[in-house]
Amino acid sequence: MEQEEYLKESGFLNALKIIGKIILFLLFVALFFVIGLFIGYSVIGDGNFWEVLNQDTWRHIFEFIEI
User: Fold this and answer.
1) 11, 33, 49, 66: which could form a disulfide with 38 (CB 3.0–4.6 Å)?
2) What does the domain layout of the chain look like in residue ranges?
3) What CA–CA distance (Å, rounded) separates 31 from 18?
4) pLDDT of residue 6
């Protein structure tokens, strides 16, 4: 009986580890995306890096995309 419980816990822990890795990966993707936005807007675009988070900036960008 102990071996069956161990296998159930082992499967559950493995699932938690996989879910944790996926969440960690998505957090890193979001972090690097925001860092890329900051670098692109402030270094390449010569703007203030906090302006990239401004809603008006994104509205202006989407106006160019929609045409």
Assistant:
1) 49
2) 2-66
3) 20
4) 59
* CA dihedral for 18, 24, 26, 29, sign (positive or negative): negative
Mind listing the pLDDT tens digit for each residue in 18-35? 999 999 999 999 999 999
51 residue type, one letter: E
Number of C-beta neighbours around residue 38 at 10 A = 16
Q: What is the 3-state secondary structure (H, E, C) of 23-65?
A: HHHHHHHHHHHHHHHHHHHHHHCCCCHHHHHCHHHHHHHHHHH
Spell out, as residue ranges, where the chain has pLDDT lower than 70: 1-9, 67
Residues 6+ apart with CB under 8 A from 48: 42
**Can you read off the two tokens belonging to residue 38?**
């900051």
Residue found by looking up tokens 């860092």 in the block: 35
